[in-house]
Amino acid sequence: MKLKSIKEWGFANNKPFVISGPCSAETKEQVLAIAHELKAVGISVFRAGVWKPRTRPNSFEGVGVESLSWLQQVQKETGMLVAVEVANEKHVKLALKAGIDILWIGARTSVNPFAVQEIADALVGQDIPVLVKNPINPDLDLWIGAVERINLAGINKIAAIHRGFSSYEPTKYRNAPNWQIPIELKRRIPNLPILCDPSHIGGTRALIAPLSQKALDLDMDGLMIESHNTPDLAWSDAKQQITPNTLKEIIDNLIKREVKPINVSLTDLEDLRHRIDNLDKELLNMLGKRMKCVKEIGQYKKDNDMTILQFKRWDSILKTRVSQGLSLGLSEKSVMTIFKAIHQESINTQEAILSKPDSK
Ligand code: PEP
Ligand code: MN
Prior knowledge:
Elements (H helix, E strand, L loop, with lengths): L16 E5 L6 H13 L4 E3 L20 H11 L2 E5 L3 H9 L4 E4 L1 H4 L2 H11 L6 E4 L6 H13 L5 E5 L17 H9 L5 E3 L1 H5 L5 H10 L4 E5 L17 H10 L13 H37 L7 H17 L4 H24 L5
Parallel strand pairs: 1-2, 1-8, 2-3, 3-4, 4-5, 5-6, 6-7, 7-8
Helix pairs in contact: 1-2, 5-6, 11-13, 12-13
């Protein structure tokens, strides 16, 4: 995919690249007050939702087209770049006409290929950065598909925004981060910049700093963080918005680690990686042997009309493995996760054996 790095987008580029501003543009005064405060703490890209996708009707759905002129005023008064969310062709046309600098596609839109294609078609011939939030459900291919649609329209200034995924199980997050998904995205499209949106992942102020640090430690390229001059009074997402001063404090306290150690030889790291490679080889050898054994047991169960799941046996496997894991310094949670995955694989293998007709 032909893509430009954020450096090549031609903006003043602080590390990390930070976009901030309110969840929603509420009033002209609110927009300008926040923009000036953000500018004063060194932020150069301002965000504000003009059209708001809300879960339930009768919530504040954004001021709409009228507030685009407030963003033009932000550009004029502060010199900041401005970003808005677009969800259809009409939004794109109005935003482009208003001279908005950056567009983003929200999580409730990137989930819908029809809507993304409509936006892509409206962008043909334009040269504007487009940020693509992950779809609300944890579907990496759908996220990649949305990026591809925008790229096929000729846009090469694209970044993905990781904003977490909805899950039925309650978690401490508003949207579970599932970090493996943005990591896999980076592996699949290495030249696609990824920003993290800790505001929508966390849903609360206290989680913004640790999530931002984690994003930097995973080598993400920047952050989109919601901020407000009076967060408690915000018309949407009040619990997760922070003041520009708090934002500055969080950014100042972030530890910026490097992918490669500076001025230090790589030999130690290489030695350790070599050890990991060998340990993984052993691990896979053992898993291969375990699976052979699982197949033999599967055949035995089939020959003797036994169920695949023998609950007592499974319960005792989990208990003994967890206690051995604990004595080796592993957490209960990680041993459970690993063994549940292995067990699932064993069940699938035995299912295949049991459902195969006998070759008599
Ligand atoms: C937003 O950024 O305000 C927003 C609506 O986010 P998301 O699409 O991630 O829910
Ligand atoms: Mn929001």
